[in-house]
Design brief:
Blueprint lengths: L2 E2 H8 L2 E3 L5 E2 L1 E2 L9 E4 L16 E5 L11 E5 L2 H16 L4 E2 L4 E2 L4 E2 L4 E2 L4 E2 L4 E2 L4 E2 L4 E2 L4 E2 L4 E2 L4 E2 L4 E2 L4 E2 L4 E4 L4 E3 L5 E3 L5 E4 L4 E2 L4 E3 L5 E4 L4 E2 L4 E2 L4 E2 L4 E2 L4 E2 L4 E2 L4 E2 L4 E2 L4 E2 L4 E2 L4 E2 L8 E4 L2 E3 H12 L1 H17 L1
Parallel strand pairs: 4-5, 5-6, 6-7, 8-11, 9-12, 10-13, 11-14, 12-15, 13-16, 14-17, 15-18, 16-19, 17-20, 18-21, 19-24, 20-25, 21-26, 24-27, 25-28, 26-29, 27-30, 28-31, 29-32, 30-33, 31-34, 32-35, 33-36, 34-37, 35-38, 37-39
Antiparallel strand pairs: 1-3, 2-7, 22-23, 39-40
Length: 341
């Protein structure tokens, strides 16, 4: 896709300073700009690149004043960073504006869907599936029986949504995600062998949830595993059966949450965090990367370490821990001197 400076200025409500007809077809960093590319200048530290960039168009703040000659066409806006983000969003919408049903696909006779559906090749819709308007289902997606999906949802290639799952409006499910696989439930018998406990619940994902690539969300043993409105999940996260994650909580990659744990709203959980099952984590909690959480956590706590400590206590303890060899040496010297006296 190609856009002229004039078209871009129209989208951003900006002003063209230079060649209004120059065209761009790609995006670039300002220091890596080339002919036919669009870039932006928002950080003053990068100002010197505007005089050497080969980008055809550069978005700048309205008050930018060039101190040397420039070859790039400028689009002047109120806020260059926000304008570039707006343009990225617009570009994504145009790029992903696919409609229609490709072939081959399988759609059950009892499945239903709304207006403006895109369904990629080799996708599957099971019995009694209900899909809203403006949904995009990319190739090789499996959607099991009795699944409901709201409006304006994107399900990227290769995602698997097991039966009975419910997905709200304005969600994004990335490639490789598995929603509704069995929870990890087994019970030992008298021989020490493990027998599977049937997992009869489902997964409920509310509105405005993003689920990163390769993340798995297990169905509940009974009831529901619930991901509440506005939650953002990174790639390769494991969420076990009957977990609940509160509104607007964000969780970074490779975190694992064991069964029946309840996490509050507006929490921030770093990468590679391990959380045991059957505990309650309050609202507004901050957990640093690679922490291990084995207890209930109160509202507004910040934790670090494994097992996790209060963030301030952890830092104070670490000061002593890293000096431990010198402390031991001093102690041994003191003890030796005491014996010699």
């Amino acid at each position: 896709m190609k856009f002229t400076a004039n078209q871009i200025a129209g989208i951003l409500n900006g002003e063209v300073d230079g060649d209004a007809d120059v065209e761009v077809s790609k995006l670039a960093k300002i220091e890596e700009g080339s002919q036919g590319s669009l870039t932006f200048l928002a950080n003053p530290k990068y100002t010197h690149f505007i005089y050497t960039t080969e980008a055809s168009i550069t978005i700048v703040d309205k008050d930018f004043i060039a101190e040397n000659n420039i070859s790039t066409t400028l689009i002047r806006v109120e806020n260059a960073y926000k304008a570039f983000s707006q343009l990225l969003e617009y570009y994504n919408q145009v790029k992903m504006n696919k409609t229609g049903i490709e072939q081959p696909v399988f759609v059950s006779d009892t499945a239903s869907y709304g207006d403006n559906l895109y369904m990629g090749a080799f996708s599957y819709l099971g019995d009694n599936v209900k899909i809203g308007d403006n949904v995009k289902i990319y190739p090789n997606v499996y959607i099991g029986d009795n699944v409901t999906i709201g409006d304006n949802v994107i399900v990227f290639a290769g995602a698997k949504i097991y039966s009975e799952s419910s997905i709200g409006n304005n969600c994004v499910i990335h490639s490789g995600v598995i929603v509704g696989a069995d929870g990890f439930g087994f019970t030992p018998n008298e021989k020490g062998e493990y027998t599977k406990v049937p997992q009869t619940g489902n997964v409920i994902i509310e509105d405005f949830v993003d689920v990163g690539a390769g993340t798995t969300i297990d169905r509940a043993t009974l009831g529901s595993t619930v991901i509440k409105r506005g939650v953002k999940l990174d790639n390769q996260i494991q969420i076990a059966h009957n977990v609940e994650i509160g509104e607007n909580t964000v969780i970074a990659a490779q975190t694992g949450i064991a069964g029946s744990t309840k996490i509050g709203k507006n929490c921030m959980i770093g990468g590679q965090v391990g959380i045991v099952g059957h505990i309650v984590i309050g609202d507004n909690v901050r957990i640093q990367a690679q922490s291990g959480i084995g207890r209930n956590v109160k509202d507004n706590e910040t934790l670090q370490g494994s097992p996790a400590l209060n963030y301030g206590d952890y830092n104070k303890s670490y000061v002593h821990f890293k000096n431990l060899p010198r402390i031991i040496e001093r102690f041994n010297t003191f003890e030796k001197n005491q014996k010699n006296e």
